[in-house]
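Hello, quick one for you while I still have it in my head. A protein chain has come my way and I'm curious about its shape. Can you walk me through what the tokens say about the fold? No rush at all, and the record is pasted right below.
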Amino acid sequence: MAIPYLKGYSVKPSVIEPTGRVYYTDGTNNFSPNQEQCEAYGYTYDSSTGTCIAFNYTPLVQRTLNNENNQAQGSNLTMETGSKNSIINGNNHTVRRQAQNNILSGMGNEVAATINDSLIVGTRASGIVTNSLVLGGNQGSDALGERQNMTFMYGVTTTDNSTVDALVNNTKDSYFVPELDTAYYFQSETLALRTGGTAGGSVGDFKAWVERGVVLNSAGTLSIDRSRTSPADSGTTTGWSPINAVSGSNFRQTVKGATNMDIEWVSTIRLTQVRFNIPS
């Protein structure tokens, strides 16, 4: 339906492009309106580009059948092939290939390829761990992940006194990999709970630890400085121990239980990171 002329105006909206840009007509020619003409009809005037805008355009890059279930609201949103079932609100976000079931809100956030089930909020936050919570505390001009806080979980089950690796989300061969030229203050809160076994003690025996420190990736070499306390324990827990360490390119947590004890281990890992040596 044609838009009528407003009282006192000899021009009116004529064309709204798929990008949201509005052109007006004087009855003969189409043109870009000035701010007064644009706003008189209820549109938004972008003074930086000199354009009249009806709505924010959201380009969906490489849109395929696999990513059509994404819910996107904002501008300059990139969803790569195979990303799906995510909710994206704000501006300048990127969801990399095959990432699924994520929520992004804020500005300039990114979920890495194949990362799932994460909540990424704030500004310039980088989601690189499945099942994680990430808060970016940056300006829009900062590097991705320059300052951010990240939370995820490690877990494993032990049945003897062997030293074994706890794993991200208790998933085989899954470790957190500190990024190049980044410092992390970490706090690991670990609970070990006995669930079975024939050794002395009882089901329900438990022990908890808080371990904190700094992990540094400097030019690809990892180092760690750490300390640990145990704020609570009950029952027979002799020999139980978790230790956070670095090995190769991984941030690792090893745990040690006891012979003939079934023990469930779970850790909440919180990282506060700062990137350095960022290219200008």
Q: What stands out?
A: The chain has three domains: 12-53, 65-145, 150-275. The chain is about 0% helix and 50% strand. The radius of gyration is 27 Å.
